[in-house]
Specification:
Bound molecules: S-adenosylmethionine
Protein name: Set and mynd domain containing arthropod-specific member 4 isoform a
Largest sheet: 4 strands, antiparallel
Strand content: 5-15%
Shape: globular
Strand order of the largest sheet: 18-19-20-21
Structural class: alpha+beta
Organism: Holotrichia oblita
Number of helices: 18
Length: about 525
């Protein structure tokens, strides 16, 4: 057994620092003493490394247990997306019912007086009002505004307010050369640069402004809250160095009104492993994930999932082989897989026979299916079920389009208007349970452990299981003993979901209430 010693008095100790797991202490007093003496400046379970493929990235410097917080940071800059529903420039919450509340000084949207005077809005407000720069609001329905000015403006204001924050921001990777000639950057150059330089008279230049915009596009995190009130973007120092992997080992969430980010390990991370996040969507196939990463983050992903044409045996980007399907209607029918999955122009070939499909055909097929899904009626699960039925001979059960539709259905049953979990028919409750199980099997491979996806699927699963069990018991289809066992199983699933999700403040109350309700349900009399 390895013996650790207190960093202060050198006595054998078993309690480690809960942030870095590297320093040990014999008592709380010694931990506080060491923290003040300097541990706070070098406490981190990771180091910054650099290589040719990833550029700068983070590597763990010790074994990090599943669920533990690896790093937390307040935003360097937080701001609306370039085009966004009307939101308050003070607190970033969506403005109620799209009402147009304007700041009494600068006329930009805010909630009210309280938000007009926030630290965040104060300085920009002064500049915008003095120079009469008005927001460009599209009064259609829903009302939207162009906020493209705000990200560079808030970043440039840091130059005066906090030199170190501005330097940290400018030290982030920008990828401007890849963005410079795009329609968006030409528009920024034409519309935003002159406002900042000529009207606001900020000491900067075109290159610096466009670099900041590009730094946002490369590094910004989508910041959302669970109530759907906030949908903005923010830059966080160090967190932005986390590299991408299509099977990531962390997740992140936001704490409090200042949107502090917490990054936690979703699976145990061994010392020396790269700490990763995903910049794309887990349920997408390799072609679409790689296209998205190339277009928005400027790199060709070569992670293990991308290199494996079967995507860890799930065949997310594959389809059934039409030749083999004629004779084999089972789930095991061979699939068409890419002949070189990290080359988007590679043909697809059957795993079993010589049937080949050209890359172009695969791209068109995927595009057509995605558009078909987008056109489905989002308030009618029947149209989603019809999609699955229509393509059951082409798309296998873990194909990307099937997974997207199954996930949509798992959310519709139990939540949609008219499909409340207590009101839907028994067969739909059963369907929701099946969908959750199927998606959990996929999650266990693509985003295992404490991922948010697993946590919320487990939550949905227990909700449906409880309704099903109560009904079966009331209809005398199952014994009291069987019902109790099933309810206990639901409690265990809820506890696992709570372990994953309750670190997120918004979820904590909901989960505690649910655990209480479920405990009452256990009494079947
Ligand atoms: C948010 S930054 C990450 C930090 C960056 N490596 C740096 O040095 O500042 C995103 C950029 O990192 C690089 N990157 C991240 N993950 C990668 C991966 N899996 N493969 C190749 N490049 C990656 C890409 O250049 C991408 O545009």
């Amino acid at each position: 057994m390895v013996v650790h010693f207190c960093s202060v008095c050198k006595k054998p100790s078993v309690q480690s620092c809960s942030l870095c797991y590297r320093a040990y202490y014999c008592s709380k007093e010694h931990q506080i003493q060491d923290w003040k003496k300097g541990h706070k400046n070098n406490c981190a379970p990771f180091k910054i490394a650099i290589n040719e493929v990833l550029g700068r990235h983070l590597i763990s410097t010790c074994d990090i247990p599943e669920g533990s917080v690896i790093l937390q940071r307040k935003p360097l800059v937080i701001c609306p997306k370039i085009v966004s529903l009307l939101l308050c420039l003070g607190c970033h919450k969506k403005l109620n019912n799209g009402d147009l509340n304007a700041c009494s000084k600068c006329n930009w949207p805010v909630c009210g007086m309280g938000c007009e005077n926030t630290e965040l809005h104060k300085d920009e407000c002064e500049l915008l009002s003095q120079n009469n720069i008005r927001p460009q609001i599209n009064l259609g329905s829903p009302k939207q505004s162009c906020y493209a000015l705000i990200a560079p403006l808030r970043s440039l204001l840091l130059k005066e307010k906090s030199k170190s924050k501005f330097e940290a921001l400018m030290n982030m990777q920008s990828n401007l050369e890849n963005h410079r000639d795009s329609a968006l950057y030409l528009a920024l150059k034409q519309n935003i640069v002159p406002i900042i330089i000529d009207k606001l008279k900020i000491d900067t230049n075109e290159e610096e402004i466009l670099t900041i915009c590009s730094i946002f596009d490369t590094n910004a995190f989508d910041v959302r809250d669970s109530k759907g009130l906030v949908n903005v973007r923010a830059l966080y120092s160090t967190v932005s160095l986390i590299s991408h992997d299509c099977k990531q080992n962390t997740r992140h969430y936001y704490i409090d009104d200042d949107f502090e980010i917490h990054v936690s390990a979703t699976i145990p991370i061994k010392k020396g492993e790269i700490i990763t996040t995903s910049y794309t969507q887990t349920l997408w196939g390799t072609i679409l994930r790689r296209k998205h990463l190339k277009q928005f983050k400027n790199f060709d992903c070569t992670c293990n999932r991308c290199k494996d044409p079967t995507e860890f045996g799930l065949y997310v980007g594959s389809i059934y082989c039409s030749s083999c399907r004629e004779n084999d209607k089972s789930n095991c029918c061979p699939k068409m897989i890419s002949t070189d999955s990290i080359n988007s122009n590679a043909n697809f070939k059957c795993e079993n026979c010589d049937h080949v499909i050209a890359a172009k055909q695969v791209h068109w097929g995927n595009e057509a299916l995605r558009n078909e899904i987008l056109s489905l009626n989002k308030s009618d699960p029947k149209s989603f079920e019809a999609f699955l039925e229509k393509y059951k001979d082409v798309l296998h059960s873990t194909n990307t389009h099937v997974l997207e539709v199954k996930y949509a259905l798992s959310q519709m049953y139990g939540n949609l208007n008219g499909y409340n979990i207590c009101d839907i028919a028994d067969d739909l409750v059963e369907r929701k349970i099946t969908l959750c199980h199927e998606l959990l099997e996929v999650a266990d491979i693509l985003c295992p452990g404490s991922s948010r996806f697993r946590g919320s699927l487990l939550y949905d699963l227990q909700a449906a299981m409880v309704v099903q069990t109560r009904r079966s018991y009331e209809q005398e289809k199952i014994t009291k003993q069987a019902a109790s066992e099933r309810l206990l199983e639901a409690v265990t699933i809820l506890q696992e979901s709570a372990k994953i999700l309750s670190v997120e403040p918004d979820m904590k109350d909901l989960l505690e209430k649910r655990l209480e309700t479920l405990s009452n349900y256990l009494d079947l009399d």
